DNA sequence: CAATTATTATTCACATACAAAATATAACAT
DNA sequence: ATGTTATATTTTGTATGTGAATAATAATTG
């Protein structure tokens, strides 16, 4: 791969810009349609499949550090989307449960995500999207770490 | 394009996860190597080519809103990377100049970015990276807006 | 020229994320 | 049983970004 090109050194910054833009738009979109932020929507989407998981599982599940998960759950609990529950056998741990409201909204979140996903992939063939998936999955997994 | 797949609705969330991971790692990398955050490094990289630009130009140039640019410049000025200067003909505007220190570091930033870019693109062919570029550029430009 | 509108940047209140340190509890080892 | 080590989460302090509102100045228009 890769004879150096003029744009080479901007790949990383391009990722930053892409994220900033999409995150901003998605936040506005989601806030006006269902009153949630993207982070909270993502957590809801995860919890719909892992209701009652531990805070730590949520953190790993959505790719955040523990403190970020703590704060996210705090804010979501404050707005009535989830509630915290104790873990029987381990007083350190704490579980997260969807409330009625939270469960109700998680369907809408999935719908909105679908809209966004479709829009984002619109101009690309399946084969091209396969490449994009592989790229993003590799980043999310930290595949590049060994090459630094 | 695109028969719906099981992963479809996760594209957007995948982008979030990829960003979170890379941003975190890059921040740690950059902080320990040259003592800067990714955002400040990106600003420095831009300013190296647009020294003395307006705050608004910086914001547009790196894809941020005006308040974010204001804050970023404030913090960078506090750590001696840039200084603010007045605009002759327009008392509303304010210009940003690299300091010695800022200019000195911008070279190192470019080097570090190159390392990251190479690592990120490592497992992909030029043709594949072309697709990735087109994808990210489209996102950064908001091409999907019309398809929502 | 005065009134209105537009531009430029900042301030404010908030949400998000991080690393490092602190807390609390569990598990293990001596 | 007691002291050490590991685990789960929270707290603390900082950086980052947002939108809405504000301030200050410029430009336009009547």
Question: Can you walk me through this structure?
Answer:
Two copies of one chain form a homodimer. Chain A is mainly alpha-helical. The first copy, chain A, has one domain (11-116): Winged helix-like DNA-binding domain superfamily/Winged helix DNA-binding domain (Arc Repressor Mutant, subunit A, Orthogonal Bundle). The first copy, chain A, is built from six helices and two strands. Chain A has helices spanning 11-34, 38-49, 55-62, 66-78, 100-121, 126-141, and strands at 82-86, 94-98. A two-stranded antiparallel ribbon of chain A has the order 1-2. In chain A, strand 1 (82-86) and strand 2 (94-98) form a beta hairpin. In chain A, helix 1 (11-34) packs across helix 5 (100-121). The two termini of chain A are 16 Å apart. The relative contact order of chain A is 0.10. At the A-B interface, helix 1, helix 2, helix 5 and helix 6 of A face helix 1, helix 2, helix 5 and helix 6 of B. The structure holds a DNA duplex (30 and 30 nucleotides).
């Amino acid at each position: 791969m890769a004879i150096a090109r003029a744009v080479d050194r901007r790949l990383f910054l391009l990722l930053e810009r892409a994220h900033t833009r999409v995150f901003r738009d998605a936040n506005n979109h989601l806030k006006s349609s269902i009153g949630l932020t993207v982070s909270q929507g993502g957590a809801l989407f995860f919890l719909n499949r892992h209701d009652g998981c531990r805070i730590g599982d949520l953190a790993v599940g959505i790719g955040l550090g523990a403190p970020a998960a703590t704060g996210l759950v705090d804010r979501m609990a404050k707005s009535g989307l989830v509630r915290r529950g104790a873990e029987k056998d381990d007083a350190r741990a704490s579980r997260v449960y969807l409330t009625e409201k939270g469960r109700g909204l998680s369907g809408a979140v999935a719908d909105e995500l679908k809209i966004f996903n479709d829009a984002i992939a619109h101009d690309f063939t399946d084969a091209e999207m396969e490449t994009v998936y592989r790229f993003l999955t590799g980043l999310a997994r930290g595949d590049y770490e060994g090459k630094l």
